[in-house]
Known about the structure:
Structural class: alpha+beta
Amino acid sequence: MATALPEIFEKVYIVTEADTVKIYDHVHHAQSFYMLERARLDYLESIGFPDKYFFERDLLLVIYSISATYKREIKKGQVKITCQDVKLSEDRRSLYMTQIFYNQRGKEAIVASVHSMCMHAKRRRAVRFPEEFSALFIG
């Protein structure tokens, strides 16, 4: 099911007028978080672990914390989001990654550090990631 992990996963998106706030003529920070989330989901799917994989096991991948530095505006046009430096914690309950959002001019616009956790859907408690997922990140 799973494939080898890429050092850097890249996803290209088209920002449309619907993605921007008219008065600012750029992407609102809340919308940029949504786009970062889309890229994370695309990354997981690309390595063989779409949301469906977790749902079928009564698991949820939830954001524990996210920190973002905004460097430049993101306007309409082709943009790119990367997922990189992806690491699993020693206890196998947390996943860490860096995401970089490049604007329509190819410049770094947002750098985000994301900490997500695996949570049991019914018990609402953090649990270890499944072994086949963890195996991608261990040795």
